[in-house]
Write a structure and sequence with these properties.
The chain is 37% helix and 17% strand. By secondary structure, it is an alpha/beta fold. Strands 1, 2, 3, 4, 5, 6, 7, 8, 9, 10 and 11 form an 11-stranded mixed β-sheet that branches. Helix 8 packs parallel to helix 16. The protein is globular, with a radius of gyration of 20 Å.
Length: 359
Amino acid sequence: MNNKKFLAAVVGLGMVTLSACGSSSSSASEGNGSKTVTLVSHDSWAVSKNVLADFEKKSGYKVKVLEDGDAGQAVNKAILTKDNPQGDVFFGVDNTLLSRALDNGLFQSYEAKGADGIKAEYRVDQDKHRVTPIDTGDICVNYDKAWFSEHKLAPPTSYDDLIKPAYKNLLVTENAATSSPGLGFLLGSAAKYGDDSWQDYWKKLKANGLKVVDGWEQAYNEEFSGSAGGKKAKADRPLVVSYASSPPAEVIYADPKPTTAPTGVAQGTCFRQIEYAGLLSNAKNTKGGKAFLDFLLTKEFQQDMPLNMFVYPVVEGARVPAEFTQYGPQAKDPETMDPAKIADNRDDWVKSWTSLVLK
């Protein structure tokens, strides 16, 4: 679920992010009795300092984090290094890439404590417990409220709306081959229109002036006129593929805070994304890794996530901030897709998408 979080350089976030210090060999040499547990993740991992400190105090483990680029890059690197992994736990593989990780033997089996509290709709791999669901979010088209008001145009509400002439040259999306939200938007369209018709949809979207950029940060903070970064960049696209949780972030980190979110969500364009963590195969500190996975399912961490990583918890009873309920509620009827279908079609769909849209 990479690139959706609001980085400190972009919105002045006061969150704690931990980057790698030293080489991966230090973790490898510490053995299973090590008091350091190493987390490998994408660049958007974040946790409150006091929450992490509480885990370290209670468990006796120190946490080191290795951030390896966006979600796709991080997963691919973890697969390439699986025989001598960089760390003990991997966080950040989502349902769009899950089969790639599982098919390549990235994780070993472990059922985390508290797993019985995970909401049923987010559970997968129940026979082997190679991954643990940690968070969820919706990839959706966001719109710039002020732009649509000024132009006296109703914002789009559905996939179908986006190919109408009224919305020509307004949408920017991310490359489905390099970006997690870009891939999610592609999968959402495939779920909506089916195996035989999604390509025709993208042909129409391209003909309607679609702009494609490499990743979320560029799309949201440089091309989208509704974001704080986009306003500074004088961006001219009032529609962007982002997340349902983007509007509350625009409110929370604005100074002064607006009474309403400056951006909205086209609810009929959403695709449900689920993010997982797992104990890496050949992890050196399996005991520490298991303790850390247990920690990720605690209410303390689950309730800390929304305002740090702008995602929803997956554990029953975990509280969601009022700002999420008010400004960024989960989609009521998002598109979804079985991980097995994603596994069977993802690579072919991305190749087809690249030929249709980028060439």
